Each structure stands twice: as C-alpha cells, then as structure tokens.
Amino acid sequence: MTRIPSKSEILSWISENPTKAAKRDIAKAFGIKGAARIDLKRLLKELEEEGKLTKRRSSYRDAEELPPVAVLEVVGADADGDLFARPLEWKGEGAEPRILMMLRSSDPALGPGDRILGRLTVDKTEDHSHTARMIRRIGTNPQRILGVFRQASEGGRVLPIDKGSDKQWTVAAGATGGAKDGELVEAEQAGPKGRMGMPKARIIARLGDPTEPRAVSLIAIHQHGIPDHFPDEVVAEADRAKPASLTGRTDLRDMPLITIDPWDARDHDDACFVEADPDPKNAGGFIIWVAIADVAHYVTPGSALDREARKRGNSTYFPDRVVPMLPDRLSGDLCSLHEGVERACLAVAMRIDMAGNKIDHSFHRGLMKSVASLNYEEVQAAVDGQPNDKVAPLMDDIITPLYDAFTALMKARAQRQPLELDLPERQIVLDDNGKVTSVQYKERLDAHRLIEEFMVLANVAAAETLVAKKSPLLFRVHEEPSPEKLDALREVATASGLVLAKGQVLKTAHLNKLLKGASDTDNDELMNMATLRSMTQAYYFPENFGHFGLALRAYAHFTSPIRRYSDLIVHRALIKAHGWGDDGLSDWDIEHLTDTAKQISDTERRSMTAERDTTDRYLAAFLSDRVGAELTGRISGIAKFGVFVKLDETGADGMIPIRTLGREYFHYDAESQTLMGSDTGMVIGLGQRVTVKLAEAAPVTGGLIVELLTLEDRVMPKGPSRGRGKPPRRKVGSARKKTAKTARKVKRTRK
C-alpha cells in the first residue's frame, strides 16, 4: 500500500523544491500513484484551507515566505556570539522565522531592539531559516562625505570635494579605517553635530587614488550635483510606511503575474500576464495585463518623500552603483514587486486583436502577488528550448502566451513604423575593485523587445485615458527634427548614395527606408549616427505635441514610478480621474505642472550627462595602459577643432586635433560636416573607416586623444602643416551645389 506523506513532509518538500510544486511533481517525489492521488489531493486542499499553502493555477507555494528585502528587529546574540533578528512584519501562522545576521566589518555594532533594513537569503538550518545582510539601520541617517583624506599626527582630516565646500571634517585615530594620505575616501558623520570646532567623521570606505576607476562614479555624482543623501525626515517617513491592504483595491493576487528584468535589477516595478480573449468576437486576440508598483500610495503629494523625489526627478545609474529616487525601504522593498509578496499596484488590462491593434483597455487599483521574478536571459533561453528549473513550470500557461501576444504586437508595430535605429548599447563590466575588465555590447533579445512593447502599449493607454477624462498630466514629448537638422541629414545621405526627399511631411517610415537602404553597407553605422543626431531631445510637458520617434499621437510615462517622477504624476492623475482615493493629483501638482516638467526634464539631462561622463572616464582608465596601440574605428563627428572617432572595440570616442592632420590646411564645412584639404582636396567626412594610434588617455577627464594613421586604408602623411598662415579659403558655394562634388571626392578618397 502506498504511504501518504504527512503534512509537514509535504510542506518541507515544497519549501526545498519551490520550482517543482505542481501536484504531479509532489506525487512523483513521494511515489504516489493510482487511487492514492485522491488522498494527496485531499491533503493539499486541507493545507490550502489552513493557509499553509497557496495555490497558483497548477502549483502550490509556501504561504509563509519572507520578501527579499524586509525590516528586521535584532533580538540578540546566542552563546556563540551569532546575532539573530526577527521580521518586523510577519503574517504567517507558523513559527516566526529566525534570521542570522551576516555583518560586515564596516557595519555598525547592533544590539537587541535595533531595527534595520536587511536583504534576506533563504538558508534553512536547525537554528535559522534565513540569513540577512544589513542595508542600513532604521532611524539613523548619518551624513555622508566624499573627500580626500589628509593624515595628521593623530587621526586626520577629510577635505570634501564638493563644489563650494570649504568645511573640513576631523577623523579620530581609531576611525581612519586605514586610509592613507591623499586617498579618496567616503566618510560619514560620527556623533552628534557640534556647534564648536570641526565636525567629526569616520572613514567607511577607502576609494584609493582619486584617478582610479572605483572613484569615478562618486566624482560624477558630486561634480553634477546629483543628490545622493536622503534627508532624515525623508528616511523617517519611508521607514514609517506599512504594506498596503486590500481595502478599496481589486484583488489580483490569484493572477499569475511575473516580472522580467535584468539579472542584477534591485527593484521590480512592472509585472505582466497574458490570457486569450474569451470574447468570440475577438477570436485569436489577447488580454494583456500590465501591473505597475503603486508608488503613489506611499509618496503622497506635498510629503517629504514627494519633495525629495521631485527634486531628484529620477534615479541615476552608473556601472557600479545606483543613486535612487526613493529610499531603500520603498525602492527595494514596499514598492518592489518581489516574488511571492503582496504588493499594491496600478494595473491596466488591454485587449488586442490578432493583428496587435488595441481594441480597448481598463485601469484598476489592485493588490497583486508575483509568482516569479525572472531575468531576460533565462526567459529567452527557455523560449529557445533550454528552460531552467524555475521557468519550465511556467512555460505553457505564462511564458508562451506572453510571446504569442508579442508576435501580434510586432505586426501592429510594423504598420506603425516607429524609428528603427540600430545603435548597440555598451555595457561596462567591473571587477570587485571597480576596475573595468571588459566593454561589451548588450545583446538585444526578444525578451527585451517583448517587455518594451508591453510597456509602450501601457503608456499609450495611460495617455489616452487621461486625455479622454480631460485630466491634467505630463506627456512624454518628442518633436520631429528641425529643417536645419534634416538638411544636414540629407547631405550625409546624398554623400552615401542615398536619398531623403524634400517637399513631404516627414514620417518615421521615410527615415526607416533610409536606414534600410544603408543596412549591410559601409554606410550603415554612419546613417544610424547621422539619423540619431538629427533627432530632437525628448522632454516632459503638460501639452501634447506627440511622440515622433515612436510614431504615436499621445504618449505618457506610466510604467516606472520607482525611478521616474513623471510616472508618479501620471499615477496620481489616474487615481484622481478614477476617484480611487485622496492621494491623487493635488491642486499644487496641477498648478505647478509646467515647473515640474522643466525640473524633471533638467534632472533627466543631468543624469544622462553624469552617466556619459562616468562612462568616458571608465573607458579612458580601461585604455590608459594601451597608449601607443593602433585601433580601428569610424569617424563619428567633425568639428572646427578636430575629428571624433568612435573606436570599434570599446565604442569610446577619441579626438584627433586638427593640428595633427597631415601637412596641409583643412577647411571646415559645417553644412556637410566635412574637412577638405587645401592642397589635395582630400575630404574627411562622417562614417569613414580609420586606423588611429592612441596618443593619450586621461581617466580624470575621460579624454582620449588619437593620431590618424590611415583614412579608408590610405596612409596619412606625417608632420606639421606647411607654414602657420591660413591659406585662402576655396569658394565652396552652397551645400546644394557642392553635394555632387563632395560625393565624387569622398569616392575618390576611398579608392
């Protein structure tokens, strides 16, 4: 007779095998066959009714799991000196989890009663169920200082690198952390703020030489004035936040929503699920659900959190760190859609037909529970036939429908024809010490495109709903290129043997045709870069001027409220428009929409500049030991003072000073973006292949100076230009008249 396992044995097995929790997996594990399956089904039903298991379609999950990030209370140390903690918010009916603290040497001393925000890892042993790393202590928020350490006879001082800061901090002998004179250090306030004398600090991180890669992002943060320290009142307000309840919300907890993010994502603000549309009138159609973290529930208008989030505008991302818009308690915990945890959300259900056209949509303020947190690579591998243990059980009911809906959306995208630029994104890979080990180009997977298409559709739905309800909002605006930039693009196209006709209303389809004509030719990268340069910069505004690049009439950012303030404004507008609560768009929000739009457009540009500067410095540091090496690339920019070259291997931009170009004087033509030799008539233009020698790499500034060796395989003459005087400028004429001439010279030069 088949032995039926006990309830505790079933719970223990499910806990150890969370990815194999279907009834058939449980039956197979315990050798249950035939009629005995009825008894197993009865046991599982009883466990579900007792609240010890929750059923999600065909699988079961432990109802008493902890989130990846949680507030913990230290309960004390055992006889061996190991420190333990308990979760502050425990909803399970079983024994409260015991958590072993894994403290680093740099963590502050903790005692019974202290509360911390911790990152949890399941580690079931006899004396504990989880281990935890401290993110920070709750209720303490010491000021951080970045500066250069200067040694003294006892201890030392920290000289901040902040612009305009002349206040020094004193460091006691026992608080230097081993810092050496001249090192860049990160310090924090030690003890209460005194009224007399220099404030006290302790070193918490040694960053070494200020020119080393590890210090690069911190320098950029301070150089560009990006706020990286939350005021005490903001942290305290975040710490007081409690998880949202089901009251006034749609219960979406039984919907198998999943998150798909980069493998190293710290927060998860969007989840999705697809089901076939049951309406027979829409046979072959789908209902796409997109659920977004309900940040508006926690960040209310006029609060300290709201003021700080508006000030920051967005999160800023560097290769080695993130400067978040919201404190960890929200961004990494309560607002993050972690697997197996109830989270507040704003969800949109969008019906599409089999051709990917949106038929209608509806918004809901709900409570959800993600069934899985996946990354792009493992989802793509599963679709390509190599699912891992976590994704395999989700394939039939969750992953496959997602891709079916994505296929339909791609049909609609082909009809709409948004701008299809092919510009690979660089990824800087760092080791544990912050040194660049490699520079890679991120692979674009269908898993990435799937999430992008779902998010675009959700953003369109948000804009359409708010326009229909005549609600104020912030649109994401992307205007079409200016006539001057289009003329410059036509110059490049003509020199490449392509045509961008005049006298027509410009559409993205025209630009896509141009890009397609250049694909698989030597001018492919050139045309993509030139098209990108012709684009205007997107921005936020209360009035709708459309989104040219996406070929959409109305577009608003709705899907990333954890990292963008614009999305929070759209969430509040939806809450107010639907009458979901008193935390919607306030009168102050509405009155200051234009100011807010400018503020967050500016902070977005600030972050982009800081991120770009950081990337340049990392690349310069990476290449600094290769000075003198020969590298290949393409000309990516022409200026009066020199030529910019995008290097093939790293994508870094090097500059060739114009004074080093051969032995002749070069005339600069801004309209055609070319340099023309005064003696030979040689034309240097965008997109040409070059070989250069790395002459200088400056990590502090991020500058790369290169020397031109060959242009389209033609060896360049060496030596200074003849004489110092400027030769008489050739009569060039208008851009229109010299187009053919320039094209002939480019062709001759390449031969």
From TrEMBL:
<keyword id="KW-0540">Nuclease</keyword>
<dbReference type="InterPro" id="IPR004476">
    <property type="entry name" value="RNase_II/RNase_R"/>
</dbReference>
<dbReference type="InterPro" id="IPR001900">
    <property type="entry name" value="RNase_II/R"/>
</dbReference>
<keyword id="KW-0378">Hydrolase</keyword>
<dbReference type="InterPro" id="IPR011805">
    <property type="entry name" value="RNase_R"/>
</dbReference>
<dbReference type="InterPro" id="IPR003029">
    <property type="entry name" value="S1_domain"/>
</dbReference>
<keyword id="KW-0269">Exonuclease</keyword>
<dbReference type="GO" id="GO:0006402">
    <property type="term" value="P:mRNA catabolic process"/>
</dbReference>
<dbReference type="InterPro" id="IPR022966">
    <property type="entry name" value="RNase_II/R_CS"/>
</dbReference>
<comment type="similarity">
    <text>Belongs to the RNR ribonuclease family. RNase R subfamily.</text>
</comment>
<dbReference type="InterPro" id="IPR012340">
    <property type="entry name" value="NA-bd_OB-fold"/>
</dbReference>
<dbReference type="Pfam" id="PF17876">
    <property type="entry name" value="CSD2"/>
</dbReference>
<dbReference type="GO" id="GO:0008859">
    <property type="term" value="F:exoribonuclease II activity"/>
</dbReference>
<feature type="domain" description="S1 motif">
    <location>
        <begin position="628"/>
        <end position="709"/>
    </location>
</feature>
<dbReference type="Pfam" id="PF00575">
    <property type="entry name" value="S1"/>
</dbReference>
<dbReference type="InterPro" id="IPR040476">
    <property type="entry name" value="CSD2"/>
</dbReference>
<dbReference type="Pfam" id="PF00773">
    <property type="entry name" value="RNB"/>
</dbReference>
<dbReference type="GO" id="GO:0003723">
    <property type="term" value="F:RNA binding"/>
</dbReference>
<dbReference type="InterPro" id="IPR050180">
    <property type="entry name" value="RNR_Ribonuclease"/>
</dbReference>
<dbReference type="GO" id="GO:0005829">
    <property type="term" value="C:cytosol"/>
</dbReference>
<feature type="region of interest" description="Disordered">
    <location>
        <begin position="716"/>
        <end position="751"/>
    </location>
</feature>
<comment type="function">
    <text>3'-5' exoribonuclease that releases 5'-nucleoside monophosphates and is involved in maturation of structured RNAs.</text>
</comment>
<keyword id="KW-0694">RNA-binding</keyword>
<protein>
    <recommendedName>
        <fullName>Ribonuclease R</fullName>
        <ecNumber>3.1.13.1</ecNumber>
    </recommendedName>
</protein>
<keyword id="KW-0963">Cytoplasm</keyword>
<feature type="compositionally biased region" description="Basic residues">
    <location>
        <begin position="721"/>
        <end position="751"/>
    </location>
</feature>
